[in-house]
Specification:
Elements: H1 3-24, H2 29-35, H3 41-48, H4 67-81, H5 84-90, H6 93-96, H7 98-103, H8 106-117, E1 123-126, E2 142-146, E3 149-160, E4 167-173, E5 184-190, E6 196-200, E7 211-222, E8 226-227, H9 233-269, E9 271-272, E10 275-276, H10 281-309, H11 315-343, H12 353-366, H13 371-381
Helix pairs in contact: 1-4, 4-9, 9-10, 9-11, 9-12, 10-11, 11-12, 11-13
Length: 385
């Protein structure tokens, strides 16, 4: 794809996603938050537009796309859809499916991937456990081999799309003698498995995204659903995080822009002391500060997308993705706070964009790796320690 073709594709995609988000998501978000979910039909609609299949092989119904295009999709969906809950669940397959595409047998790929990309099935990823948090190597959920099956026992928590997922990519310990990363594997668990129970979790934000605690009590999973080799799960999980963090950064930037958009519109029409809010220097400076954070983050995101598309995804890039995830979520935190401040009392009211995003900031700074973990990862990738 030439530079001109890429620019044209980016513009067309941004326009498509903006129309979809403005007309089919944003007007319904408050209603969906109150209901605690959004319609499953939204998956099919997003699939019809080609959004669920972006970055996936054509043979499975996807559309191969560089990071530069996937970034545009995530950013626009968050900016104009203005709901982390919708974005998180609608795109949960982007963290659940990549290990399937990379590691599953051809037969399993054909069984699982096309229906998810068509919006007919929902995929999720289950790594975190009640006692584990960011310590992935400390996974306690076990999967012992019995003939042609694995028997899974354990718990997972904070699982996005956990209540509705038809396929769940699960981190399990297949080497019961190993207490570290070498004993971990990835296993694809069908959502209708006997012995799998799900409990809905109530949250501060992402109200229309189902988030669940999963319990596996003797769940029997066909051995053909093992993803990759036994004991190779930790490396696959760590590699999968890079794509998730890049997507989080792009989404956080979009949400920051949404806060700016609402704050600017409010400042231009709200009158105080005989003039529009934007006529006051202190408000103008807040808006400039928001743009300063947004533009710096956007430039870094563009640079990392270009490097990835050129094949430069080594240790330095991994460290930059970790640091960018912090940069982008800190930008979001700054812009959400500034947006609420500019809106004043209205910024504290349910139904405003800034209020909803303000409640969603912390989950984005924590999900995919906390700020502290990201700093440590960057330090190691950059040879600081």
């Amino acid at each position: 794809m030439t530079d001109a073709e890429l620019r044209e594709a980016r513009t067309a995609l941004a326009d498509l996603v903006e129309r979809f988000a403005r007309t089919e998501i944003a007007p319904h978000v408050t209603e969906w938050d109150a209901a605690g979910e959004f319609p499953r039909a939204l998956y099919r609609r997003a699939a019809e537009l080609g959004l669920l299949g972006m970055g996936y092989p054509e043979e499975f119904g996807g559309t191969p796309a560089p990071h530069a295009l996937r970034m545009v999709m995530w950013r626009a969906l968050c900016r104009f859809g203005t709901s982390g809950g919708v974005q998180a669940s609608l795109l949960s397959h982007n963290i659940g499916l990549p290990p399937v595409v990379a590691l599953a047998s051809d037969a399993v790929k054909r069984e699982v991937v096309p229906p998810v990309l068509a919006g007919e099935k929902i995929a999720a990823l289950a790594i975190t456990e009640p006692g584990g948090g960011s310590d992935v190597a400390a996974v306690h959920t076990t999967a012992r081999r019995e003939g042609d099956e694995y028997v899974v026992d354990g718990e997972k928590i904070f699982i996005t799309s956990g209540m509705r997922a038809d396929w769940i990519t699960v981190a399990v310990r297949t080497n019961l003698q190993s207490k570290g990363s070498s004993g971990l594997s990835l296993l694809l668990v069908p959502g209708d498995s006997k012995g799998l129970s799900r409990t809905r979790l109530d949250k501060m934000g992402w109200l229309c995204s189902d988030t669940a605690q999963l319990r596996f009590d003797g769940v029997r999973v066909p051995a053909r659903y093992l993803l990759g080799a036994e004991g190779a799960g930790f490396k696959a999980i760590m590699g999968n995080f890079n794509g998730e963090r890049f997507g989080i950064a792009a989404g956080a930037l979009g949400f920051a822009e949404a806060c700016y958009d609402e704050a600017l519109a409010w400042a231009q029409q709200r009158k105080t002391f005989g003039q529009a809010l934007v006529g006051h220097q202190v408000i103008r400076h807040k808006l400039v500060d928001m743009q300063q954070h947004i533009r710096a983050t956007a430039a870094w995101l563009e640079q990392l997308a270009a490097r990835a598309d050129a094949g430069d995804t080594g240790a330095d890039w991994v460290g930059e993705v970790a640091a960018l995830k912090n940069q982008a979520t800190q930008t979001l935190q700054f812009c959400a706070d500034a947006g609420v401040q500019i809106l004043g009392g209205m910024g504290y009211m349910r139904g405003t964009v800034c209020e909803r995003i303000y409640r969603e900031v912390k989950v984005i700074t924590i999900g995919g790796g906390t700020e502290e973990i990201m700093k440590e990862l960057a330090a190691r990738q950059w040879g600081i320690v």
